[in-house]
Amino acid sequence: MYRSILSILAIAAVSFSFAGPGLADGATKFVGSITTRGQVRSDFGTYWNQITAENECKWSSIEGTRGRYNWSGCDAAYNWAKENGGFFMFHALVWGSQYPNWLSNLSVADTKTAITNWFDAVAKHYPDLQMIEVVNEAIRVAENQYHSGYSNTKIIQALGGDNNGDYAFVTTAFKMARERWPDAILIYNDFYTIQHNKDQGIELIQTIKKNGAPVNAYGLQGKDLMAQEGNCLNIKTLESTIDEIWNKTQLPIFITEYEIGTDNDNVQEKCYEEQISYFMNNEHIAGITIWGYIYGATETTNGNSGIIKNGVDRPAMAWLKEYLPENNGVNTTGLETGVITPVDPEPQTPFKGEPFAIPGKIEAEDFDIPGKGFNDDGTSNDSYGDDSENHGDSDYRKGTGADLYAKASGIILGYNETGDWYEYTVNIANAGKYTAIASVATDGTAAFTLSIDGDVVGEFTVTGESYDDFFDFEQEVTLPAGKHVLRLDVTQEYFDIDYIDFKAEENSSSSATGAESSSAVADESSSSSTTGNSSASADNSSSSVKDEPASSSSSSTTADSSSSSEKQAASDKQSSSSAASTAALGDQIRFGSGDLATYDVYDLKGQKLARFAARNMEEVAQMWKNWSKNASKVQGIVLIRNRISGEIVQIRSIR
User: Fold this and answer.
1) pLDDT recorded at residue 280
2) Strand runs labelled E in 291-414
3) pLDDT at residue 455 greater than cutoff 70
4) Given the DSSP bridges, would you call strands 404-407 and 421-428 parallel, antiparallel or unpaired?
5) Which neighbouring-strand residues pair with 237?
6) CA 532: distance to chain centroid?
7) Would you say residue 557 has pLDDT above 70?
8) Residue 236, SS3?
9) Domains and CATH numbers, the chain
10) What pLDDT band is residue 426 in, cutting at 50, 70 and 90?
11) Which of 54, 133, 137, 203 is catalytic?
12) 536: pLDDT strictly greater than 80
C-alpha cells in the first residue's frame, strides 16, 4: 500500500526474512507501538512495524479551533509509516473524549455539520488511509452513559441516536467512513472488552452488523489483561474469552492498546510471554499495538507499562527481541497487516458423513464438522459459533465448545446464548412447503431462526417452565430442493433443543424427480451454501483466475498442466462474475515450458491468481511483473510460492 519500489524478497519455506522495520517484519501480523510524548523516536523502526499516534490524530489535536486544522503531529506518524514501509492506524474519528471544546456548545444540526466537515477534512488530507478506528469507546453501560463522554455533546443525536441500545450513531459513523474510504479497514475500538464488558462489546458488534455497519474488525484495548492480584490474567481464561468474541462476532481482531503496567519485571515478562505468543498464533488476530514502550511515558501508573527503562531493556523487551524474529505467527483474516500465509480452504462436512435428508429429523447436536480457511468470496468454513467453554455434562463431541447435555431423550444442545449459531448440511428431496417441528425446553421465553443459504425460512418463539420438559413447536417453512446448508441462529437466550423434524406437506412439489434430483446434488461439486459460513467448492483449486486458461493450457508443462474433463467441468461451474474475471486475466497469462518448477501466485487474502513454470524465483517474478503491468486489478502485493520447495517471495509493485 505504501511501498512504491518493486522488490523481490526471498522468504524461506519455514521462515520469513525480508527488509523492513521492526522485530516482527515479515511476520503474519504487525507488532507496533505509539508515538512517545508526541514524537516518533529515532529508534521506533528498530522495534516496530506499525504506528498509531497516541494523541496527535484525535479531533481535538487537529481542529482545536473550528475550521482550522493542524496536521503536523498526525503527519509525523503517517509519514513514518509511508516512508519506512510500516502500517499506520488512524486513531480515531468519533470518540466521546478529546473532541474540540467548541463542540459541546453546538446544536444537533451544527454538530452533524461539524462531524461531516471533520470526516471530509481527514479524507482530503489522508485519502489513502489503510486502517481507521472509526468509533472509539461507545459501549452503553447504563441509560445515557457510555464508556466515554458522548453524553456531553450532541454526537449521538447528530448521528442518528441510540434508541434502546440500537447504536444507530455508531452505524452511521461507519457508513460515513466507508463513503470516504472505500478500501480502508474500518475498526470499532473499546476497552475492558476482555474481562469486564465482554458481553456488552459483543452485543454492540452484533447490533451494528445487523444494522448494516461496514465494520471490518474489532479492536480490543488490552488494558484489562492483568488479574486483580497483580498477576497475569489466566491464559486459559484469555484464550476462551477471545474464542468466544470471535465466535460471536465473526470479525477479525486487533489488540489495539496493549499495556502490562507493573514494576514487577517478572510478572510483566510472564504476561508478555503468555499473551503475546498467544496473540501471534491466534489466526483471527490481525495485529498487536503496544501502547507505549518507554518507561515513564505511558498511561499506566508512573508509566510502568514501558518495556525500556532508562535506556535498558526490561525482561519483557528482551523476550520480545528473541521471540518475534523467530516466530511468524498465524493470520488467516485476509486483512493486509502482515505476510498472509496462503491457506487452502477446506469445506465444512456433515458430522455423520452424509447430509441430513429432508423430509427427516436433524439431531441438534450433530452440526457440521468445521472446515478450514476462507473461500474465494471471503466467507469462512466454520460450522458453528459458540464460546469455547463447555457448560454441558456430556463427552459427546468433546472439545467443540458446544454445550451438550445428556437428557432422558438422549444428547441435546443446550445453554444456547444470543448470537450462538449452528449449521447442518442437508439434502432436500423436493422443493415446497414443510412443517418444521422443533423439540425445545426452556424456562421462560426464547427464540431462534432457521435459514437456508442466508435466507430466513422460519422464526421460532418458544416458551416453557423447565429445561427438563421438551415440547414440540411447529412452523411452516418453504424449502428449495437440493443440497444446502441449514443454519440455526439463537436470537433470544436461553433454551435447550433436541431435534428439528421436517415433514413434507401434501402440496410440496419436486423441482426434479426423486432419484434424479438426489443424484444431481451428489454430483454437484460446487453446490455449497452461499451463507457467511458456507462450505467451499469440493474443488479447492478453483480461484478467480483459472490455473490453465484455454489459450495456454496446451503449451503448459507444469505439474498440474494436463486438465481433465472433471476439472474443466468444475471450472465451468464458477459464477458468471468469476468467469468474466477469468476470461479477462486468463487470455493474457502465458506459462513457461520445459522441465521447470511450478509456482503459484496468491494475493494477500490467500486467493490463488495464477500458476507459472520457471527456472527460478527471479524468472517467475519477472514473468508476473511483465504480465501485470497492464492488469490494474491484480497490482499491489502478491506472494509467489514454489509448489515443491515451499519457498515464497513477496512482490511489492506500484498500485
Assistant:
1) 96
2) 308-309, 312-313, 356-358, 360-363, 384-385, 404-407, 410-413
3) yes
4) unpaired
5) none
6) 12
7) no
8) helix
9) 1-16+540-655 (no CATH), 17-326 (3.20.20.80), 356-523 (2.60.120.260)
10) very high
11) 137
12) no
| Owner of C-alpha cell 424427480 | 513
Can you count the helices (H) and strands (E) in the chain? 15, 27
Cis, bond preceding 12 (omega within 30 deg of 0):
no
Q: For this structure, is 417 an active site residue? A: no
Instruction: Please write the tens of the pLDDT for every residue from 201-212.
Output: 999 999 999 999
Find cell 447436536 and name the residue: 365
AA letter at 352 = K
Is pTM beyond 0.85? Reply is no
In this structure, which amino acid lies at residue 325? Answer: P
Nearest Cα to Cα of residue 279 among 258, 262, 293, 260: 258
Q: Is 257 a catalytic residue?
A: yes
Among residues 360, 417, 358, 413, which one has the least CA distance to residue 387?
417
CA distance 317 to 576: 52
Residue 392 is predicted with a pLDDT of 84
Straight-line distance from the first to the last Cα atom of the chain, in angstroms, rounded to the nearest whole number: 7
Q: How many CA atoms lie within 13 A of 492 on its CB side?
A: 11
Predicted confidence at residue 367, as pLDDT, reads 96
Within 10 angstroms of residue 304's Cβ, the number of other Cβ atoms is 18
Residue tagged 494475493 (cell numbers): 603
**pLDDT tens per residue, range 36-46:** 999 999 999 99
Query: Which member of 257, 336, 423, 548 is catalytic?
Result: 257
